[in-house]
Amino acid sequence: EAGVAQSPRYKIIEKRQSVAFWCNPISGHATLYWYQQILGQGPKLLIQFQNNGVVDDSQLPKDRFSAERLKGVDSTLKIQPAKLEDSAVYLCASSLGPVTQYFGPGTRLLVL
Amino acid sequence: LAKTTQPISMDSYEGQEVNITCSHNNIATNDYITWYQQFPSQGPRFIIQGYKTKVTNEVASLFIPADRKSSTLSLPRVSLSDTAVYYCLVARNTGGFKTIFGAGTRLFVKA
């Protein structure tokens, strides 16, 4: 079974530029999550989708971050404009059952 | 959602049993306890989950006392490759399970 796919794996941009990350969850998984993980910290949930509807986006900085999950499968997370403090690893996860989440390898973002 | 508290770090030697305890004093009746493992440059990986008493799989055991205000992850006979960060989470069903990661416990296994 293929795991959660994410791209790109690495991205370097300058502040005020925009960037987008892509996630393909495990086939059949209805729930998709985007996390931000800053070095030395645990993952912080940005947004959670159930199919193509948003379940929780309470910690998403909506003035600069946006996410969509068209057709309830793939998802994209966008940052526009990026700030220095957005430098982090962005993790995508998906789940079929109620608890177990399967994580992708993450996208490492560096904002200069 | 119940906040979890774990030790920041632990050291161990190869072959020893490691027990990592997590407190979750405000756990609710329908909450589940879940543990994840994360290696550097990788996403977290599910280890084990439980509701009460004891759960065991091929990787670890999870002990949960009757009051469920804490839980202990037990790793038998650790090896160098078990060096990682271990996260204790409480998962709550809010129409899709909601979880919050804490800072985790950094386990360092020495030869």
Low-confidence stretches of chain B: none
Outline type of chain B:
globular
* Fraction of helical residues of chain A: under 10%
Global Rg of chain B: 13 Å
Gap from first CA to last CA of chain B: 38 Å
Instruction: Tell me the overall shape of chain A.
Output: globular
Structural class by helix and strand composition of chain B:
mainly beta
Give the averaged pLDDT of chain B, no decimals: 91
Which structural class best describes the helix and strand composition of chain A? mainly beta
Instruction: Please give the number of β-strands of chain A.
Output: 11
- Major sheet size, sense and barrel closure of chain B: 6 strands, mixed
Distance between the termini of chain A: 37 Å
Instruction: Give the helices and strands of chain A as they follow along the chain.
Output: EEEEEEEEEEE
Radius of gyration of chain A over all CA atoms, rounded: 13 Å
Largest interface: A-B, 24 and 25 residues
Order of helices and strands of chain B: EEEEEEEEEE
How much strand content do the residues of chain B show?
Answer: over 45%
Largest beta sheet of chain A, briefly? 7 strands, mixed
| Average residue pLDDT of chain A | 93
Q: Give me the number of helical elements of chain B.
A: 0
- DSSP strand (E) fraction of chain A? over 45%
Mind explaining what this structure looks like?
- The complex is a heterodimer of chains A (112) and B (111).
- By secondary structure, chain A is an all-beta fold.
- Chain A has strands spanning 5-7, 10-13, 19-24, 31-37, 44-50, 53-56, 65-68, 75-79, 88-95, 102-103, 107-111.
- Chain A contains no helices and eleven strands.
- In chain A, strands 2, 4, 5, 6, 9, 10 and 11 form a seven-stranded mixed beta sheet that branches.
- The N and C termini of chain A lie far apart (37 Å).
- The relative contact order of chain A is 0.33.
- Chain B has 111 residues and is an all-beta fold.
- Chain B contains no helices and ten strands.
- Chain B has strands spanning 9-13, 18-23, 32-38, 45-50, 53-56, 61-64, 70-75, 84-93, 97-99, 105-110.
- Chain B is globular.
- The interface between A and B is medium-sized, with 24 and 25 residues.
